[in-house]
Design brief:
CATH architecture of one domain: 2-Layer Sandwich
Shape: rod-shaped
Structural class: alpha+beta
Helix content: 55-70%
Radius of gyration: 37 Å
Length: 288
Amino acid sequence: MTKSMTAFARESATEDEGELTWELRSVNHRYLETSVRLPEELRTLEPKVRERLASRLGRGKLDCTLRHMPGPGTGSGLQVNRHYLAQLLAAGEEVAKLIGQPAQLLPFELLRWPGVLREQSPDLGPVMEQSLALLDMALTSLVATREREGARLAGLIRERCDRLAICVAQVRERMPQVMMEVRRRIHDRLQEVRAELDPNRLEQELALLAQRLDVDEEMDRMAAHLDEVRSVLSGSEPVGRRLDFLIQELNREANTLASKSSDLEVTRLAVEMKVLIEQMREQVQNIE
């Protein structure tokens, strides 16, 4: 299925562990380029996050952001280091005896002493699991958006393929008349000196001229490229690079047609072809 590279997805969840929010934003890019921003406490998730992104997306520049607001019962706790505090108190009493003054150890002064308080690290396992599950949901939403937009782009490209096919048919229909007109003009110009010319040589020159003006091969190749574009759009693999190549080939055939044209109507059709191909190129730039 054809996928666009431009999409946005946002998924949030609130549980006992707190509130989690993923935001995924992708735009067109030649390769897959990811930028991951995670809260410091969840930084170790980055390898798994990148692995999930690479498994679901083929191309595009992706900004991936996770926000985490811890719940009231999941924050870091403070614990008194009882063993160290006992040692500190004993040392204070010993110093008081040595200087002959009673020890005045106030609780909050003791709490400021380095090492008395220890910070308890919360169990982040449930938060990490929930973060990855929520990421899968956000990725599913992002991919669905890319598929919908890709289907719309594919429809626009198919429409332009149909219009190009009409142009090709019109060129084919026009060419016999063009060749007859070319032959008529040449015969008229040579009428005055016709008696001095070898009729066989004249026919040979006219045949060579007709060969140079003939665009049947170009139109055959363009028709084949259009069929290939339609076929590629129906595939399930990423198609952007293949479509890029086909657009280049279509443009080459349209340029050749324009350079060979000696007829105003054929030139107009060649210009219309190039306009349609350029529109296709702009749309293809955003396809994965």
